[in-house]
Write a structure and sequence with these properties.
By secondary structure, the chain is an alpha/beta fold. The chain has helices at 3-13, 27-33, 60-72, 87-99, 111-122, 137-149, 162-168, 191-201, 213-216, 250-259, 270-273, 290-296, 300-318, and strands at 104-108, 128-132, 153-157, 173-179, 204-208, 226-229, 244-248. It has one domain: Type I PLP-dependent aspartate aminotransferase-like (Major domain) (Aspartate Aminotransferase, domain 2), CATH 3.40.640.10. Helix 2 (27-33) runs antiparallel to helix 4 (87-99), helix 4 (87-99) packs parallel to helix 12 and helix 5 runs parallel beside helix 6.
Amino acid sequence: MTTIEARSNLQLTTQPAPQALPVRRGASTQAVHAGEARPYPYHSLTAPVVQTATYTFENTQDLREFQEAHLWGAAKGRVEYGRYGNPTVAACEAKLAALDHAGDAILFSSGMAAITSVLLSMLPAGAHLVITDDSYRRTRQFCLNFLKRLGITTTVVPLGNFDALESALQPNTRIIVSESPTNPYLRVMDLMRLAEIGHRHGIKTLIDSTFATPINQCPIDFGIDLVVHSATKYLSGHNDLLSGVVAGEAGLIAALRQQLGVAEIRERRRRFLAQSRAVPRKGLGAGPPPRHALRRVPGQRLHQYERDQGNAEKGGDEE
């Protein structure tokens, strides 16, 4: 065999180069780029604020075609009223979902607006929920006092006592609510064990992860169904605005969007509304203004928080 023939055979038997694994963006990159379609209008460097309460149509025919398409679930990419959706808010929601390793997220005007809207949408009259005793005080008050008026009962169990938690579950239990780390005592929940209990009993789990932020903890990675943040705190960090967010698997968030404010919608529109961003604040009106959505998350403050976290870890190693 000649040298040329040997090289030819070698080339034929050479294995193809392995494909590169998809690169997972870090939190700093997600905080800057996730959820934002580029290029921006007018070649802007930053995401524009769509500061409007209503949206225009070319003419009456354009409006009629939109309404007919909307009725049958074919109107994609636009809405007609600011409370039903906003591009700036949608970009912020996508950014927050990416940071929390979630399929989707819904932005609200405050952390309490987020968690109360979720509970109101998931709990029918006669339902039961379990909440841990060191959860945020206002959340506990809402569950024990307000939901009671709607025929929804609440059982409080000690945080970390999983025997008590399982004993508190009832046939009508719909959700387990906890916070980790807690405010203000910084107690930590075993998220994997909580998720296992919830999955085994067919009950949804919700974690208030405000104090950790997605930089330190992504509860969805441990099997938790829903994550709530009072984004007023570390996710904002500048003490100049209020907002909240709930994140989770895309199908579950779509169901929440559907539940919030669509009781009056005709059945033939339900398929569309389950996928629509218009629904979550449509009935309750708890959406944030677009200027808050732009400032809200999470650029400079998260970068600073990430640096602080790294410095703390290095200091601990040196000790």
